[in-house]
Amino acid sequence: MENLSFLIDGLLLGFVYGVAAMGLTLIWGVMNVINLAHGPIIALGSFGVYLLFSRLGMNPYLALIFTGAAGLLLGIVIYWIAINRVIEAPHLSSLLATFSVNMVIIGLGTAAFSTTPRNIDYSLGSLTFNTITIPISRIIAAVASIIFTAVLYLFLYRTTLGKYVRAVANNRAAAELMGIPSRRILALSFGLGSTLAALAGGLIATIFPFTILSGGVYELKSFVIGVLGGLGNPLGALIGGLALGLLEGIIPAFLPVTWVPVLEFALFVLILLFRPTGLFGVKK
Amino acid sequence: MNAWRTPGIWVALLVILAIGLMPIVLKSDATREVVFTVLLSVALASSLNIILGYTGYVSFGHIVFFGLGGYVGLYALNVVGLPLWMAISAGGLAAGLLAFLLGKAILRLRGAYFALATIGINEAMRAFVINFPAFGGAIGISLNFRIYREYGGATSALWLTYYLMVAFTLLAVALSYAIKTSKFGLGLIAIRENEDAAEVMGVVTPNAKTWAYVLSAIIPGMVGVLFYFKNGNIEPGDAFRLHFSIELLVMVMLGGFGTVVGPILGAAGYQRLRGILLTTPVLKDIQLVVAGVLLLLIILFIPSGAVGWLRHRFPKLRQVLP
């Protein structure tokens, strides 16, 4: 029965991982940039919710909306400062450009918040079925993740702006010929990716303690999930997140918990080798 | 060989030798430690440059070879009881072998996929070593201090590692130059510029890439043994720290990627800068911010690095600056 409890915990958490990975994979899909500042933005999302909650007494779930909006702005600013100039350059340039943003955020964050773990002291209790206990915060996090995914899909497939994003992802030069301001769309996409990161960070803050450095773990998980679901495929990212969450729930049943990352990264490398388009990815 | 008549490479080697002799002449332990760090960075950055700068493959987790070398070396010294030179060879061999096996598999991936795979391998290795009892699991391996006695006590063991470090740095730079000026190196540069075209021109790209990867891994493996022999202990968190990997990339970019002198200047410059940032009280807390902003400025405005910029600006330098 304890195993089932682990499994449900892992699965619910998987939705949140999925949201973080969706941000990463959206940016990759639209502009072929691996965003190494993803982790710190996730951590900033956690701090956003934390600060609004502890300083202004705002409900954490309401604070999430403001944090997401701040993430959008931050992402757009990062795009114009750090990425716009290297968008056509080889991969090393954009990797290092986003990594320098990572260093700046971590540096400022460490100076401002130190690295003592914080947590949001806001408990909603938990639901109990027989012997299985599920914290309500995890259920809400999973539901919120599904809502974010749905909103992203509505945006991408039901709005003109979303159509522009898809057009730029598909063929930037052709999109430009059709009169789409591609650079602005890229900035918007980077902003959306950051929003998803910040939202995931905010949800994580309602479940686990965090520091400015803890985003790194979720960034690595986002890589694994992104590759699992196919880089550039947001829905694949959600399913990949669930798969990873399940894996994290199942593995501890028959192996020590420290083996989880070994298997995760081994899986990551194997998928890169044999199915670089992801398990659910379509061939480009 | 004609290539060795260029003065540039000799100047570079002599400068390294001169810097390497400085602590010996001054008989200063503090200088020795500073120079050791700089030389270590030079050796690692020059090695990374073979796969990154010449071949154009972004190895993001290159530190895995340094860490693995360190682990194999300390295991050989501590548990098997091999002498230092054999431990160093074992470290280099292990790193080279890992690179060979990995190369066969992941060098098929291009661009960002390769970079991601190297991150994955570094993380997988770290997570694996944490679970590997022979390497001490999460605690790591601590060198038995008796071993220093075989080398005349801790003090002379430290000097010995220092001399070896100087030698390995010279070797790394000479190797980097030898590769760049060889036909093999030309093949690598052709791969960097256009892999498909290189293949059409008769470069056997899978083999060339694999050997470039192996050559860029062996010296990191060997100096890994030296570093952790000096350090006295090794832990998974330190040995496979992704951050250090990225610092190496920064050094190569700073100095000029694909040049022989670039990684030397980049490594020395980066370590000097870090030293200044860490010792200046105002900047200490935000050293990461300053370093990040500088890195960004370099990437955005001088992407070819210091040496690349000089070569571009003063074409005559191309003959003397390898």
Task: Describe how the helices and strands are arranged.
The complex is a heterodimer of chains A (284) and B (322).
Chain A: H1 2-31, H2 38-56, H3 60-83, H4 91-113, E1 126-129, E2 132-135, H5 136-158, H6 160-170, H7 172-177, H8 182-205, H9 215-229, H10 234-250, H11 259-274
Antiparallel strand pairs in A: 1-2
Chain B: H1 7-26, H2 29-54, H3 63-80, H4 84-106, H5 112-130, E1 141-142, H6 146-149, H7 153-180, H8 183-193, H9 195-200, H10 205-231, E2 233-234, H11 236-239, H12 242-255, H13 261-279, H14 281-284, H15 287-301, H16 305-313, H17 317-320
Antiparallel strand pairs in B: 1-2
- Give the CATH topology of chain A: ABC transporter involved in vitamin B12 uptake, BtuC
Largest sheet of chain B: 2 strands, antiparallel
Global morphology of chain B = globular
Average predicted local confidence, pLDDT of chain B: 90
Please give the alpha-carbon distance between the first and last residues of chain A. Answer: 43 Å
CATH class value of chain A: Mainly Alpha
The overall number of domains of chain A is: 1
What's the overall geometry of chain A? Answer: globular
At the first level of CATH, the class of chain B is Mainly Alpha
* Uncertain parts of chain B: none
Order of helices and strands of chain A: HHHHEEHHHHHHH
As a percent range, the share of helical residues of chain A equals over 70%
Number of strands of chain B: 2
Q: Which chains share the greatest interface?
A: A-B, 43 and 44 residues
Q: Beta-strand level of the residues of chain B, as a percent range?
A: under 5%
A few lines on this structure:
The complex is a heterodimer of chains A (284) and B (322). By secondary structure, chain A is mostly helical.
